[in-house]
Structure to design on (526 residues):
């Protein structure tokens, strides 16, 4: 029997704007993610995906609705989650080692132990030899690896990932996706992964949630029953992959068009 | 854009030729009677004066005093600027109330306060330290204030999710961000510290490099004035070199550093 790790109940988020009508970014969003599952959220840009992640992490408080994380109602910033930001959020003045250690130091783990654990994770993400580099000295892909290590080093059960690979070139991205899958296969964390790339969503996930153009609502949910372990490069030519892609894209396309023309989707 | 490479040896050769040419022209002009040494002195005269100051050792005392005043002014000014900047950046109300006040004070040409400081604090080093401090404090204040206000919100969010409490946030995010701004204004603040000390000395004192210039001036000794200026240029150059070294070390995490 599987237990629910993330639960959103009728989340509505309205942003107040100076001199304008409040803007509804999310409208009655409900879904849940079972422990150990890899779930992706796709939707047109601006549909409130980043907002959703921030709410789950407790960085934002929803206007109404409730969020439960690991059976506990979310209030305030959650420290039992890992969060990978869309933009780089590494500390520019810390070396790779100090960046990866940060979460442990904040948790008052003794320095020597924190260092050993950080070094272990730096090795696991393939960055041995770069411990004393600063973020600016690393490529985009390497910085993402540091973020991943920084996030995993303190062992959060839930990973919230906001378009983590969208800024990478295609080759690096494929590589990172495969490595993420391998890590996930081994660690069995619950992952909520945001992307605008449907191929990426299908290739990685057990389930894909499609959101509507703003105000964001859950439009549809698709189970991705492709066998694991997967290789994101090979899977794209799989017949079933292509069928799923066709099916979900039909849904997503309407929303992307709606968000471009500014017309609100009614389906 | 294409990277232009410069031949450093050529650059230095031209620099030295220009300098030597300028000095030769100056000396020659004086000797030929075109330039009046009463107003323009001459390189020879200046050298003689510098040699004399070095021989009797008096110049080192004056330099020492000026450096000491400027160091005190710099240190106290930096500390006060950091504390004020930090408090105002962290408190929405204090920031809103006092930021315009600080900007207003900053707009005053503070060198005109020097006579006041001398009036209040006398001819000793106190007035010079305060003058120097008054210049430094604003530079550091605005650097700290901006550094903390402008810190990337994603960094703060990341730190908090990584488990940072409010002290961790201050220590690992806010202070490093402020320090990076303070370091990048180090040249300005150290330069201001020197200016403050020298101007204070010039306007009223019995010691220091500024006093040397003011004394020579009162004796209509152009050679002494120029010699004092040369000493200041050397001091400023030396400080600039030191700062370059320190800066490269402190901002190793920044994309381009040093020169
Ligand atoms: N703090 C905020 N204030 C006002 N509007 C916001 C704020 N954050 C997000 N929004 C708006 O909410 C909408 C959803 O944003 P976001 O969650 O970032 O979308 P996505 O990540 O799906 O592209 C956007 O239109 C954005 O402009
Ligand atoms: Mg987003």
């Amino acid at each position: 029997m599987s237990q629910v790790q993330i639960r959103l109940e009728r989340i509505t988020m309205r942003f107040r704007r100076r001199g304008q009508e409040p803007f509804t970014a999310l409208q009655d969003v409900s879904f849940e993610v079972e422990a150990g599952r890899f779930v992706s959220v796709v939707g047109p840009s601006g549909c409130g995906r980043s907002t959703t992640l921030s709410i789950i992490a407790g960085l934002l408080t929803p206007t109404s609705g409730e969020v439960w994380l690991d059976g506990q109602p979310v209030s305030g910033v959650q420290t039992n989650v890992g969060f990978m930001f869309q933009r780089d959020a590494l500390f520019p003045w810390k070396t790779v080692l100090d960046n990866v250690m940060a979460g442990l130091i904040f948790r008052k783990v003794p320095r020597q132990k924190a260092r050993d654990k950080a070094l272990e994770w730096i090795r696991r993400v393939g960055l041995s030899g770069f411990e004393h580099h600063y973020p600016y000295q690393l490529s985009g892909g390497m910085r993402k690896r540091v973020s991943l290590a920084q996030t995993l080093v303190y062992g959060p059960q839930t990973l919230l990932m906001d378009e983590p690979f969208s800024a990478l070139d295609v080759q690096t991205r494929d590589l990172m996706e495969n490595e993420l899958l391998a890590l996930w296969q081994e660690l069995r964390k619950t992952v909520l992964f945001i992307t605008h790339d449907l191929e990426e969503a299908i290739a990685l996930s057990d389930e894909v949630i499609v959101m509507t153009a703003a105000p964001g609502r859950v439009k549809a949910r698709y189970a991705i029953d492709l066998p694991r372990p997967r290789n994101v490069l090979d899977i794209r030519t799989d017949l079933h992959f292509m069928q799923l892609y066709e099916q979900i894209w039909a849904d997503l396309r309407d929303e992307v068009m709606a968000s471009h023309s500014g017309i609100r989707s009614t389906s | 854009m294409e990277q232009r490479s410069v031949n450093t040896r050529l650059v230095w050769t031209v620099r030295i030729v220009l300098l030597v040419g300028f000095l030769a022209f100056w000396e020659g002009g004086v000797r030929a009677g075109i330039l009046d040494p009463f107003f323009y002195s001459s390189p020879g005269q200046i050298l003689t004066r510098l040699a004399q100051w070095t021989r009797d050792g008096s110049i080192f005392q004056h330099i020492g005093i000026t450096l000491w005043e400027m160091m005190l002014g710099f240190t106290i000014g930096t500390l006060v600027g950091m504390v004020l900047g930090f408090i105002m950046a962290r408190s929405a109300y204090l920031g809103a109330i006092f930021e315009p006040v600080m900007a207003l004070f900053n707009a005053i040409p503070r060198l005109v306060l020097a006579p006041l400081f001398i009036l209040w604090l006398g001819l000793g080093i106190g007035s010079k330290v305060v003058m120097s401090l008054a210049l430094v404090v604003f530079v550091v204040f605005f650097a700290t204030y901006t550094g903390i206000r402008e810190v990337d919100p994603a960094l703060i969010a990341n730190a908090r999710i990584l488990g940072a409490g409010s002290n961790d946030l201050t220590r690992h995010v806010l202070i490093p961000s402020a320090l990076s701004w303070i370091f990048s204004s180090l040249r300005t603040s150290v330069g201001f510290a020197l200016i403050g000390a020298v101007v204070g000395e010039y306007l009223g004192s019995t010691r220091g490099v500024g006093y040397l210039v003011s004394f020579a001036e009162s004796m209509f000794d152009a050679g002494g004035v120029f010699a004092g200026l040369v000493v200041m240029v050397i001091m400023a150059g030396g400080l600039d070199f030191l700062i370059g070294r320190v800066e490269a070390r402190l901002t190793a995490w920044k994309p381009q550093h040093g020169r």
User: Anything to note?
Assistant: The beta strands of chain A are 4-15, 23-34, 38-42, 64-69, 72-73, 81-84, 158-162, 190-194, 207-211, 218-223.
